[in-house]
Amino acid sequence: MATEIMSTGFDNSGRGAVQCSWEIYVGVRAYTEACQPSEDQAFEADLDDAIARMNEFIVENSIVPVTKSELQDAIRQRKQHVGDVVRGQSDDDRRKLCEANPIRPMSIALRSASHDLRVSTLNTRSCPSSDHR
Hints:
Layout (H helix, E strand, L loop, with lengths): L17 H18 L5 H21 L6 H19 L4 H10 L3 H9 L2 H12 L7
Helix pairs in contact: 1-2, 1-3, 1-5, 2-6
Protein backbone atom coordinates (compact mmCIF):
# COMPACT_ATOMS: atom_id res chain seq x y z
CA MET A 1 0.00 0.00 0.00
CA ALA A 2 1.26 3.47 -0.83
CA THR A 3 1.98 5.87 2.00
CA GLU A 4 0.75 8.85 0.01
CA ILE A 5 -2.50 9.41 -1.82
CA MET A 6 -1.69 11.01 -5.16
CA SER A 7 -3.56 11.73 -8.33
CA THR A 8 -3.65 14.39 -10.98
CA GLY A 9 -6.49 15.95 -12.85
CA PHE A 10 -8.01 19.24 -13.86
CA ASP A 11 -10.40 21.31 -11.80
CA ASN A 12 -12.61 23.44 -13.98
CA SER A 13 -15.22 24.05 -11.30
CA GLY A 14 -13.62 27.19 -9.91
CA ARG A 15 -13.91 25.70 -6.42
CA GLY A 16 -10.34 24.51 -6.03
CA ALA A 17 -8.86 21.07 -5.70
CA VAL A 18 -10.16 18.86 -2.90
CA GLN A 19 -6.78 17.14 -2.49
CA CYS A 20 -5.16 20.44 -1.53
CA SER A 21 -7.87 21.23 1.02
CA TRP A 22 -7.68 17.67 2.34
CA GLU A 23 -3.91 17.96 2.85
CA ILE A 24 -4.33 21.24 4.73
CA TYR A 25 -7.14 19.99 6.96
CA VAL A 26 -5.33 16.72 7.73
CA GLY A 27 -2.13 18.65 8.51
CA VAL A 28 -3.99 21.06 10.78
CA ARG A 29 -5.80 18.17 12.50
CA ALA A 30 -2.52 16.33 13.12
CA TYR A 31 -0.93 19.54 14.43
CA THR A 32 -3.92 20.26 16.68
CA GLU A 33 -3.87 16.75 18.13
CA ALA A 34 -0.13 16.89 18.85
CA CYS A 35 0.26 20.51 19.90
CA GLN A 36 -3.12 21.63 21.23
CA PRO A 37 -4.95 18.49 22.33
CA SER A 38 -8.50 19.10 23.56
CA GLU A 39 -7.87 22.86 23.60
CA ASP A 40 -10.83 23.61 21.31
CA GLN A 41 -13.08 20.59 20.93
CA ALA A 42 -15.54 22.43 18.65
CA PHE A 43 -12.69 23.26 16.25
CA GLU A 44 -11.48 19.65 16.37
CA ALA A 45 -15.01 18.44 15.61
CA ASP A 46 -15.22 20.85 12.66
CA LEU A 47 -11.91 19.51 11.31
CA ASP A 48 -13.03 15.90 11.75
CA ASP A 49 -16.34 16.63 10.00
CA ALA A 50 -14.62 18.43 7.13
CA ILE A 51 -12.10 15.63 6.66
CA ALA A 52 -14.86 12.99 6.70
CA ARG A 53 -16.79 14.93 4.05
CA MET A 54 -13.70 15.33 1.90
CA ASN A 55 -12.91 11.61 2.31
CA GLU A 56 -16.36 10.78 0.93
CA PHE A 57 -15.90 13.17 -1.98
CA ILE A 58 -12.41 11.85 -2.78
CA VAL A 59 -13.56 8.21 -2.73
CA GLU A 60 -16.49 9.01 -5.03
CA ASN A 61 -14.58 11.24 -7.45
CA SER A 62 -10.91 10.27 -7.47
CA ILE A 63 -9.31 9.59 -10.82
CA VAL A 64 -7.18 6.95 -9.12
CA PRO A 65 -9.39 4.59 -7.07
CA VAL A 66 -8.92 5.07 -3.34
CA THR A 67 -10.82 3.71 -0.36
CA LYS A 68 -11.88 5.44 2.84
CA SER A 69 -9.67 2.97 4.67
CA GLU A 70 -6.63 4.11 2.68
CA LEU A 71 -7.44 7.75 3.41
CA GLN A 72 -7.93 7.01 7.11
CA ASP A 73 -4.60 5.14 7.18
CA ALA A 74 -2.90 8.18 5.64
CA ILE A 75 -4.49 10.40 8.29
CA ARG A 76 -3.37 8.08 11.10
CA GLN A 77 0.18 8.06 9.69
CA ARG A 78 0.26 11.86 9.54
CA LYS A 79 -1.02 12.15 13.12
CA GLN A 80 1.51 9.56 14.25
CA HIS A 81 4.38 11.40 12.55
CA VAL A 82 3.49 14.79 14.03
CA GLY A 83 2.88 13.21 17.45
CA ASP A 84 6.24 11.41 17.35
CA VAL A 85 8.03 14.73 16.79
CA VAL A 86 6.70 16.29 20.01
CA ARG A 87 6.15 13.22 22.20
CA GLY A 88 8.62 12.87 25.05
CA GLN A 89 9.83 16.47 24.79
CA SER A 90 9.96 18.85 27.72
CA ASP A 91 7.09 21.34 27.81
CA ASP A 92 9.41 24.10 26.60
CA ASP A 93 10.86 22.03 23.76
CA ARG A 94 7.40 20.83 22.78
CA ARG A 95 6.14 24.43 22.67
CA LYS A 96 9.11 25.47 20.51
CA LEU A 97 8.58 22.57 18.11
CA CYS A 98 4.88 23.35 17.82
CA GLU A 99 5.56 27.04 17.23
CA ALA A 100 8.08 26.17 14.48
CA ASN A 101 5.74 23.72 12.74
CA PRO A 102 5.04 25.03 9.21
CA ILE A 103 1.33 24.13 9.47
CA ARG A 104 0.87 26.41 12.50
CA PRO A 105 -0.10 29.54 10.48
CA MET A 106 -2.78 27.56 8.64
CA SER A 107 -4.05 26.22 11.94
CA ILE A 108 -4.26 29.74 13.37
CA ALA A 109 -6.09 30.99 10.27
CA LEU A 110 -8.62 28.14 10.30
CA ARG A 111 -9.15 28.40 14.06
CA SER A 112 -9.74 32.15 13.85
CA ALA A 113 -12.54 31.70 11.31
CA SER A 114 -16.02 31.14 12.64
CA HIS A 115 -17.66 27.74 12.46
CA ASP A 116 -20.14 29.09 9.90
CA LEU A 117 -17.35 30.49 7.71
CA ARG A 118 -15.41 27.19 7.83
CA VAL A 119 -18.52 25.23 6.79
CA SER A 120 -19.42 27.75 4.09
CA THR A 121 -15.89 27.67 2.69
CA LEU A 122 -15.87 23.89 2.72
CA ASN A 123 -19.24 23.78 0.94
CA THR A 124 -18.19 26.17 -1.81
CA ARG A 125 -14.54 25.25 -2.29
CA SER A 126 -13.90 21.64 -1.43
CA CYS A 127 -17.05 19.60 -1.55
CA PRO A 128 -19.55 20.81 -4.13
CA SER A 129 -22.36 18.77 -2.63
CA SER A 130 -23.90 20.82 0.16
CA ASP A 131 -26.38 18.17 1.25
CA HIS A 132 -23.98 16.91 3.93
CA ARG A 133 -25.06 19.69 6.29
